[in-house]
Amino acid sequence: MSLSTSLLLIVLLIAASAFFSVAEISLAASRRLRLRQLADEGEARAERVMRIQEQPGPYFTVVQIGQNAIAILGGIVGEGALSPAFTQLFSIGLGAEAAASAGFLASFLVVTSLFILFADLFPKRLGMTAPERLAVKVVRPMKLLMRVFAPLAWIYAKAADGLFALFGLPQQRDDKVTYEDILAMTEAGALAGVLAAGEQQLIANVFELDTRVISSAMTQRDRIAFFRRDDPDSVIRLRIAAEPFSTYPVCDGDIDQVIGYVDAKDLFQRVLNNQPISLADDALVRKVLIVPDRLTLAEVLEQFRLVGEDFAVIVNEYSLVVGVVTLNDVMSTVMGDLISPLDEEQIVRRDENSWLIDGVTPIQDVMHALDLESLPHQGEYETLAGFMMVMLRRVPRRTDSVSWGGYKFEVLDVDSFRIDQVMVARLPA
User: Fold this and answer.
1) Measured over all CA atoms, what is the biggest interatomic distance in the chain, rounded to whole angstroms?
2) What phi and psi, each to the nearest 5 degrees, are found at residue 327?
3) Beta-strand (E) ranges in 203-288?
4) Model confidence over 325-367: pLDDT tens digits?
5) Domain CATH number, residue 322
6) pTM (2 d.p.)
7) Domain total of the chain
8) Are 59 and 156 within one domain?
9) Domain check: are 13 and 124 in the same one?
10) CA nearest 298: which of 324, 322, 333?
11) Under a CB-based contact definition with an 8 Å cutoff, are residues 237 and 393 in contact?
12) 197 vs 180, 365, 411, CA distance in Å?
């Protein structure tokens, strides 16, 4: 066989090996969601790829048969074609035996390098860039090869199945998409510039509804504006002017005796019509939704949907009122500044290494702002103030501090045992 013929055969073998490399990596890296989109757009070959992914054994068996056979044949052809030429070149300065050894080594290195670069590295990196597009292109010739090598592939596949069964390994890949997978994809999209940072954060907030408890979004007990059933008209009008809210609980005595709520729109309508306001009027006071303080935000949304309300009073296990929550509060957790841009921020970044944070800020928001994966005793508190109390094991005082995770948390202001503000500073490395 002439040198030119041998070189042409090596090029063809490299091309065939590159085809099998692309077929292997494209099927393994193809995302089922993207394949489903291609199928919905009319790409029939995408359905074939998904069916192969469900039972990939015969496919990968054919790939390995092709790659190994080509590698062996490439070594034989390369050694026969290039070794004489290299041996003749090295014989100028070396003896016959040394020149033959050097020629064989040089031939081996050249052929191996060509296969590694053009039959392995380049096609696999190409396959990783657009796996779904390449998978649908190679699926037809691979189906043909699977028929040709079916008997041989069956033998190897059964042997591989026996090994999987012996070691108790799964034989089908798990294509379940978890919320961690979706978040990882959105983060990658945000880093690539395909998805805006605000959109990525919005998606992350939606998934947090199942993990964040209601106390992270509620108005705390000491900040609730409420009416007593026997409040006179003048007191009600003054309180509306001093504390303008959309909804007010109505209580029979103290705040723990909630009997209903009144909508600010109904009060304003009476004010505009110059009608007296009396909370003894059952037509004005509506039935209130009472929910426990251990519900998640997703469960609260479901409660709102079931009863057709957008306001709820939150009680603890002792039937004491701990806060109130509205639909807008829950949606503010998801939308952030998009829904309430004028609200006072709970986390204010002073500079690159320090933050001023309200004590009632939900601990999840603090962790996100500081890029912390976890905090100690995390299930024992829900706010930054709770974190400080758990870490100090007492009611914090002004200037008390805690260091954790490369940050120093220092209490700046305490009002009646309630932590108002905390200064968080990044510690030197």
Assistant:
1) 118
2) -60, -35
3) 219-220, 227-228, 247-251, 258-263
4) 999 888 887 776 554 443 457 888 888 899 999 988 888 889 8
5) 3.10.580.10
6) 0.55
7) 4
8) yes
9) yes
10) 333
11) no
12) 17, 16, 31
